[in-house]
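Minimal example, chain plus adenosine-5'-diphosphate.
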Amino acid sequence: MPTTIDAKPASNKPEARPLTFAQAIAKGQTPPPAVHPELANEQPVVTIEDFCLYYGQKKALFDINMTVPNGKVTALIGPSGCGKSTLLRSVNRLNDLIDTVKITGKMSLNGDPIYSRHVDVIELRKRMGMVFQKSNPFPMSIFENVVYALRIDGENRKSVLQDVCEKSLRGAALWDEVKDRLHTSGLSLSGGQQQRLCIARAIAAEPEVLLMDEPCSALDPIATGKVEDLIHELRGNYTVLIVTHNMQQAARVSDYTAFMYLGRLVEYGPTSSIFTKPILSDTEDYVTGRFG
Ligand SMILES: Nc1ncnc2c1ncn2[C@@H]1O[C@H](COP(=O)(O)OP(=O)(O)O)[C@@H](O)[C@H]1O
Ligand SMILES: [Mg+2]
């Protein structure tokens, strides 16, 4: 008979192991996200509370709770179809344009409700900049593209427009390339320059948050590098929420990263922690390429 003095008492129950986030979702649950403590020290610009979104019968976002910190670049990552674009478009109510969309929960921009019957959506959208996958300069000069929002607001003083144009193009790291041809068409620029022009146009309006949906996905690697450098440099001066399916890009440009999966926020924290010491095994599996 072997001695059993040091042996652990035999248990007839299997050890209770917590479900992974993905296993909990598979059981129809929506576990709370793992939010790193650093976020508590940030000043929120956008606050999202218990936000759900349905496309008809299909639920696309499940109880999203997160804040977008002031003056930081926050990346939304996750597999294709997990709801990144849906969440981004919900912030400036672009999903309102789809009849079947229903939402529950709350969002606010610097304390002002985004979803309230009394909100003037046009005025709300003026407070946010949006940069899409494909650059969309207006068919007008570089100068007029940049000062577009000011013109709409009735600003016609040449010196004001010139100052804003230069400041915004410098801010978008495009000034040196275009300063001698401000009056040529925005459409004459290369793809990467057009995307930086769209960023200049967005920042000229001094938005409280800049929303970007995969802004580099139509660009070649060199143009991508320039736009990534620019986004990284916007830190401090602008609040950016950027969707990317490219994890290297998230790691390069962002201060904070939010990992989404099947319409849920899974983990949210400083980018370096998300990529090197995430709290959840689900996040680790995703960022190391084991799934998704
Ligand atoms: N206009 C739409 N109508 C119906 N379903 C949509 C629409 N847009 C997106 N979806 C669905 O919502 C889910 C999330 O999509 P999306 O936000 O585009 O994901 P991601 O940007 O992460 O790839 C997907 O299942 C997608 O098919
Ligand atoms: Mg998308």
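Confidence is low (pLDDT under 50) at residues 1-7. The pocket of magnesium ion (ligand 2) is lined by residues 84-85, 243 (CB under 6 Å).
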